[in-house]
Amino acid sequence: MKIIMVVLLTLISTPLWAAAPFTPEQEVRIKALIRETLVANPDILEQSINALQQQANEAQGQQMDQFIEANKQVLFQDPGSPRFGATMPALTLVSFTDYNCPFCKTFDPLLEKIVKAYPQVAVVIKPLPFKGESSMTSARLALTLWQQHPNQFLPFHQRLMAKKGFHDADSIAAAQKKTGVTPVALSEQSLNVLRTNLKLADQLGIEGTPATLIGNQIIPGAISYEQLEEIVKQQLAKAGK
């Protein structure tokens, strides 16, 4: 609706402002002629809306490209953020997730599936503790494990994601026991990583999980594998891979 109003103002008002002054009668007639033209040729309005939408998308894409370029180190190469997949990827997906988020629990296995199907793809995990104290605890524990025993991270991550419903101290301890990970004390670095993740999410306009950065697009929510694969294929094609 906002775009339509902009188009109408552009088509109806701008010519009157830009031209030499008209009499009130001339203004009424000009507006009537414009409306008659739009009614007779509705594709003019559609074309104008499409052009404005394309300009808006291009501007948004440019802003995203600039943000990614300025923050590529912390987005894609932060040593404190867990990752899996290709060691020298053609495409890196950044997954903002929460161990208490039910939609994340359904979407996370699709990321592992896409990496297996496309070995040139990597995934970076950036926990966002949006859902309470156990979100914070489980995220910090997973991050600490990645920092101190990186080979043990993925089984523990998968176990946390496999639980239905919210975690508590008992379920987190059970996940540690089940996966046999080395006991660790929560590190200060894990807290710093979470602070950075929250800042990135705010700058990217992320308000919920899951949210996935693919190329220069933020994909909100738990999309299907078919949708995920299509976006990955498009981005690989753009990268010439």
Automatic annotation (TrEMBL):
> Which is one GO molecular function term here?
oxidoreductase activity
- Thioredoxin domain ranges (all copies): 45-237
Q: Where are the bilayer-spanning segments?
A: none
Q: Where is the signal peptide?
A: 1-18
Pfam family of this protein, just one?
ScsC_N
Question: Does the keyword section mention Disulfide bond?
Answer: yes
Supply the alphabetized keyword list: Disulfide bond, Oxidoreductase, Redox-active center, Signal
Q: What is this protein called?
A: Putative metal resistance protein
Q: Which organism is it from?
A: Yersinia intermedia
